[in-house]
Design a protein that fits this description.
Pfam families: Abhydrolase_1. It comes from Streptomyces echinatus. The chain has 286 residues and is of the alpha/beta class. The protein is built from 8 helices and 9 strands. It has helices at 77-91, 103-114, 135-168, 188-206, 212-222, 239-251, 264-267, 269-281, and strands at residues 7-13, 16-24, 28-32, 54-58, 67-68, 96-101, 119-125, 225-231, 256-258. Strands 1, 2, 3, 4, 5, 6, 7, 8 and 9 form a 9-stranded mixed β-sheet that branches.
């Protein structure tokens, strides 16, 4: 597996400075991560994609090296989508490919609606987008996210982590992974990213007004291909799993099943890369 080394860049955008990396050659593929994940989160996945794509990874505004001009200002899902559009404009003149996971998938759907034509294909893996769900389920999803915020506010990450694991159907004691993964310890940077994700970005999700019909209209108008996806081992009761099913129903398709659970892209990077290559190089699949 011979690929070029990753190159780091910065991009000034309204209200922030974004840190991003590029690696490989070929069509541009943006990876947008879940949770506290920054450009380092996909260190095991990118090398298995960079032989076929120019892979772009980045720190969302407010995470790690992507600094905010005014830290106290709220960050919205629209901000994140606008960042995607500006970031892709900096690296390509063509519609790009995108694989979004959880928060990243929700940002991808927001990008489809706000910036029609920027993406040619979006893989949307278990998007955290309550508005995809029926009213009662949506309210339940929002309440669950706010409960995690409350747990974090009162007890920090020690209290928030069990609530997040329950929310995503994760059992840390029995999680399976591929061998030889790069360790991802809970550093001070990751702790700060978790705090920003829970305290600020959960609010961006729960207050977002984007309606699924807007996404579908924009995708149809621009022939953007949206591929809903779930984890093979994610419990069907998990809200983000149900969001993927609801998205697939609106699009009249079936979700693609990825290896592992909600965080399968980091637990099974080799298998995830193989499936992504398959989906992104064959438009008849997914």
């Amino acid at each position: 597996m011979l690929t070029t080394a990753a190159t780091s860049h910065t991009l000034s955008v309204p209200g922030a400075t974004l840190h991003y990396r590029t690696q490989g050659s070929g069509p541009v593929l943006l990876l947008s991560q879940s949770g506290e994940g920054d450009a380092d989160r996909t260190v095991d996945l990118v090398p298995h994609l960079a032989d076929a794509f120019t892979v772009v990874t980045y720190d969302r505004r407010g995470l790690s090296r992507s600094t905010l001009d005014t830290p106290a200002r709220p960050v919205t899902m629209a901000d994140h989508a606008d960042d995607i559009a500006r970031l892709l404009a900096a690296v390509t003149d063509e519609p790009a490919l995108m694989a979004g996971f959880s928060m990243g998938a929700a940002i991808g759907l927001q990008t489809v609606a706000r910036h029609p034509g920027v993406l040619s294909t979006l893989i949307a893996h278990e998007p955290v987008m309550p508005n995809l769900l029926p009213e009662a389920d949506r309210a339940e999803h929002v309440a669950e996210l706010r409960a995690i915020q409350e747990a974090h506010a009162t007890g920090g990450l020690t209290a928030a982590f069990p609530a997040i694991a329950r929310h995503l159907g994760i059992d840390p004691a029995h999680d399976e992974t591929e061998a030889g993964l790069t360790p991802q310890p809970l550093t001070a940077r990751r702790e700060a990213n978790f705090a920003f994700f829970i305290g600020t970005e959960f609010t961006a999700v729960t207050t977002d007004g984007l309606r699924p019909a807007e996404v579908v209209r924009a995708a149809t108008r621009t022939d953007t291909r949206i591929v809903p996806a779930t984890g093979r081992t994610t419990r069907p009761t998990v809200h983000t799993y149900r969001c993927a099913l609801a998205l697939a129903a609106r699009l009249g398709t079936e979700p693609v099943r990825f290896p592992g659970g909600h965080n399968g892209n980091t637990a099974f990077p080799r298998a995830t890369a193989r499936l992504l290559k398959d989906l992104l190089t064959d438009p008849l699949k997914g």
